[in-house]
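User: I'm curious whether this sequence folds into something compact or stays loose and floppy. Could you predict its structure so I can see for myself?
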Amino acid sequence: MDKINPQRRSQNMAAIKSKNMKPEMIVRRLAHKLGYRYRLHAKDLPGKPDLVFRKRRKVIFVNGCFWHQHDAQGCLDSRRPKSNRDYWNKKLQTNVERDRRNLEALKQAGWSAIIIWDCETKDTGPLSLKIAHFLKTQ
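Assistant: Here's the prediction. I'll summarize afterward.
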């Protein structure tokens, strides 16, 4: 059973944006601080990656743990709702499959991709190292 009424749930869901959210802004600031310059939300690439480093042919996706179903043990943000299970199972599974197809298409086109999960943005020390390592490697 949902804890809030359907009208309020609808308002909450409608307010969710896909760009410039807090986790994405954290990753953008870290990459910039590390000295890397990038483009945002390239529409010509599969999945419209959040950060695009064209010269390096690398992209970063900043994924919400719930919407993209982060499967790491201990990530509580990826729990599925208990109400309307058929809808949510189908919706979230479709997102996961689309992400997989986009990553494969990028790989086939010669791009390297990394996914940074919402829960990883809470500790910027290891995240900064992860970004730096990804962008330095060939």
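Summary: The beta strands are 39-40, 51-53, 58-63, 112-117. The longest strand covers residues 58-63.
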